[in-house]
Design goal:
The protein has 87 residues and is an alpha+beta fold. The protein contains three helices and two strands, in the order H-E-E-H-H. The protein has one domain. It has a two-stranded antiparallel sheet with strand order 1-2. Strand 1 and strand 2 form a beta hairpin. The longest helix is centred in the last third of the chain and has 18 residues.
Length: 87
Amino acid sequence: MYAKVSKKGQVTIPKAIREKLKIEKQGGVLFLMEDDGVKLKGVPSEQADRLAGSLNKYAKKYVPLDEIRQRIKGKIADEAAKEGLSD
């Protein structure tokens, strides 16, 4: 089966494959890298829910996207000021 990749790198998994992998509306997909390609494994929604947050112990802390954007703008402004680019 063929599926087109969007500009954002997104692919719609064909219905026949979703049914075979038992991927429901809220399920997920596990990508398994192999030497000659990639294998997909369906993750049912209840398993996906259990996996959510399982990497928290590796994360330093949650930072909202708006805060990250503000920090980046501040760093860009600092760099511009150092280079004499600001008005």
